[in-house]
């Protein structure tokens, strides 16, 4: 009887070892990736922030990602969202940290402690995960005289499974962030070599145009200083701002105080418009950033110059 028990025990240990080996190698018992998503078909991502009731909704509208938060619908940063989806698709479990529900709190993968991530394709849910705590430890066998190389580990659980997986990386840095971190911050982004005319529609007596005529930049038909023009372009070609005004709403029929527009040989007209909000403050909108209202700086001082800016004093 003891021999039978011993044989059964050996078989059981062997089975556990085989399963563990399968987990690591990515055989049938253990998927190589935690989720596999066709990112081109994803239409919505919901992120329930860690230890918070706040839920960020990212919705795809044609080729743009939009962020829904606090009743606002503003343009999100497409590159950031693409990176989020890429991160999810590349999640490889390096080990199983836990297999039972009673361990969830230890790894902070309960609904109340973790970051909840839901990925949708239309009305179909294609992935639902809970992202838990993060830990780091120095790598093994390192030279004690060198800067330590830390191994970063995050813990994650599929919402409908008990298992908690350990994966490489600091995932909270990507997912558990405030709404502003997902927003598009472009005000005016373009290639000056493709610009042919910039119109400054200020009050009637101060309006002017900066136009490329046969390779020379002219201000109202007067030759501008080329160095000053190129210096100005260097400042505005990648004009961004994270000074979001989340309180102001620009009505559809509201007329701008003034407009700066950039005509391009290739691409759409870029328009940056200035308004006065309900508090009497200057705010701006950009045709390159749907739904976003910016506070005045740094836009006003960088972009909105007078014609004297292009002539040596």
Jot down its keywords.
disordered N terminus, 19% helix, elongated, 313 residues, alpha+beta, 6 helices
Can you describe what's shown?
By secondary structure, this protein is of the alpha+beta class. It has two domains: 31-139 and 148-179, no CATH class; 186-310, no CATH class. Helix content is 19%, strand content 37%. The chain has a nine-stranded antiparallel β-sheet, with no helix packed on it. The termini are far apart.
Query: Uncertain regions: pLDDT < 50 for 5+ in a row?
Result: 1-29
Order of helices and strands: HEEEEHEHEEEEHEEEEEHEEEEEH
- Beta-strand portion reads 35-45%
Mean pLDDT: 87
Sheet bearing the most strands, described?
A: 9 strands, antiparallel
Question: Helical content, roughly?
Answer: 10-25%
Distance between the termini: 104 Å
**CA-based gyration radius:** 28 Å
Overall SS class: alpha+beta
Strand segment count: 19
Number of domains: 2
Instruction: Specify the overall morphology.
Output: elongated
Count of discrete alpha- or pi-helical segments spanning 4 or more residues:
6
Strand order of the largest sheet: 4-3-2-1-6-7-8-9-5
What quaternary form is this? single chain
